[in-house]
Structure prediction request, 64 residues.
Amino acid sequence: MPTAAAQARHLSLVRLEQAAGQAFGCAEEVEKAVTSRAMTLLTPTTITLATVATAVAATITYLV
Prediction:
């Protein structure tokens, strides 16, 4: 498939995807904001803090 035809097909599919997203009420900015908030919960620091908090809670529960 020539490059121009492939590019035209790609742009057509992108437009179709955007139209379908708008038809179902999905805004592109909302998806990006949700993704960035979700990625914050997966940082190594957050996982480490959650692990330490769980270990402390388990130790307190065991001692009480």
Notes: DSSP finds three helices and no strands in the chain. The two ends are 71 Å apart (CA to CA). The chain has one domain: 4-63.
